[in-house]
Amino acid sequence: MNIIELKHVTKKYDDGFVALKDINLTIESGKFYSLLGPSGSGKTTILRIIAGFSSATSGQILFDGKDITNLDAAKRHLNTVFQNYALFPHLDVYENVAFALKLKKKPEKEIKAAVKEALHTVRLDGYANREISELSGGQQQRVAIARAIINKPKVLLLDESLSALDKRLRKEMQFELRAIQKKLGITFIFVTHDQEEALAMSDEIFVLNEGTIQQSGTPVDIYDEPVNDFVARFIGDSNIVPGKMIQDYEVEFVNKRFECADAGINPREKVEVVLRPEDLDIVSPEKGKLVVTVESQLFLGDHFEIKAHDGDENEWLIHSTNPTEVGKEVGLYFDPEDIHVMRFGESEAEFDARLEKYEGEDEDEN
Ligand SMILES: Nc1ncnc2c1ncn2[C@@H]1O[C@H](COP(=O)(O)OP(=O)(O)OP(=O)(O)O)[C@@H](O)[C@H]1O
């Protein structure tokens, strides 16, 4: 079931800057979504428009199928967790978490039970009487979440809410947030510029750049089939080289022809080819589909990051669990499915239509 829909939403700020250009997105109930993009891409603007803190210049926002474009923020069934948590420093944990229910003048007994349950959900049992200043960053984050879930919103908006934490705590909170979302079964919309974080946590990701959605889909879809070079570069490491389509399922790059899994592109059309570093296997030069010379090698704990160049002066990034030798000539092996062919200027809708057509044909053949 769709809980939130944005239809043709644009946002022009007072100074004339257009921060969102015709945004269309659908959020289903009970899933974890990320809005992912570099600084200034419009993530927070989308969140603020959904929350009702900012209004769209044009377009429509639906909540549970009803138009809420002009509805007051306070009347929307959602809460927001801000980057700085916005906790009240002069109130203790209990008072912070109880705040929304006290405002609604709920009976004390009901409030007590709700605070207990919310603190239990975020694993802060026994912290009710602590002062905010006596909590670690991760604990403050949990209080902010407890406060936001106490009145059981249908949607929780989280704006870069892990960015103040150190790396280890951040990882821990990623698991935690995901577990809380699953337990509560409510929709989370999480804003982040960290692609690893979005990949690890989300059911679905919207990748944004310059006020437009570049691609939406599951983490695996977006990683495996980036629609354009922005997405390919932004999500994970990648090797991107220019190429030319020969025919369906055959592409040329670095002056060689390779079998690939892509179709529906015109013969001789110029394309870009993406190969992920972990899809390149180092083999002997005779067995390689490409021959490269190793330039550098770094041990990164769980893999070696190897840089190499081919005769055409393309640099190749390789992630390998085995070391090689700097200066050595080696072969690179990859499967046809590891080659991702991208058309210039293809929109996500065109990309999806092309994929659907060919997947449909494959099924017909089987
Ligand atoms: N009140 C405003 N007036 C004019 N421009 C604004 C205003 N608020 C935001 N912008 C601009 O709109 C664009 C999108 O901003 P937004 O905060 O949505 O980006 P973001 O993707 O959340 O970035 P970050 O990760 O840095 O928070 C930016 O270029 C920003 O400078």
From TrEMBL:
Protein purpose: Part of the ABC transporter complex PotABCD involved in spermidine/putrescine import. Responsible for energy coupling to the transport system.
Keywords attached to this entry: ATP-binding, Cell membrane, Membrane, Nucleotide-binding, Translocase, Transport
Broad class of enzyme this protein falls into: translocase
Family under the similarity heading: Belongs to the ABC transporter superfamily. Spermidine/putrescine importer (TC 3.A.1.11.1) family.
Subunit details: The complex is composed of two ATP-binding proteins (PotA), two transmembrane proteins (PotB and PotC) and a solute-binding protein (PotD).
Name the record gives this protein: Spermidine/putrescine import ATP-binding protein PotA
InterPro entries, A to Z: AAA+_ATPase (IPR003593), ABC_SmlMolc_Importer (IPR050093), ABC_transporter-like_ATP-bd (IPR003439), ABC_transporter-like_CS (IPR017871), Mo/tungstate-bd_C_term_dom (IPR008995), P-loop_NTPase (IPR027417), PotA-like (IPR005893), Transp-assoc_OB_typ2 (IPR013611)
NCBIfam families: potA
Short name of one Pfam family: TOBE_2
Enzyme Commission code(s) on record: 7.6.2.11
Species name: Lactobacillus psittaci DSM 15354
PROSITE patterns in UniProt: ABC_TRANSPORTER_1, ABC_TRANSPORTER_2
SMART domains, per database record: AAA
Record GO terms (molecular function): ABC-type polyamine transporter activity; ATP binding; ATP hydrolysis activity
Gene Ontology cellular component annotations, sorted alphabetically: ATP-binding cassette (ABC) transporter complex
Catalyzed reactions: ATP + H2O + polyamine-[polyamine-binding protein]Side 1 = ADP + phosphate + polyamineSide 2 + [polyamine-binding protein]Side 1
Residue span(s) of domain ABC transporter: 4-235
Top-level taxonomic group: Bacteria
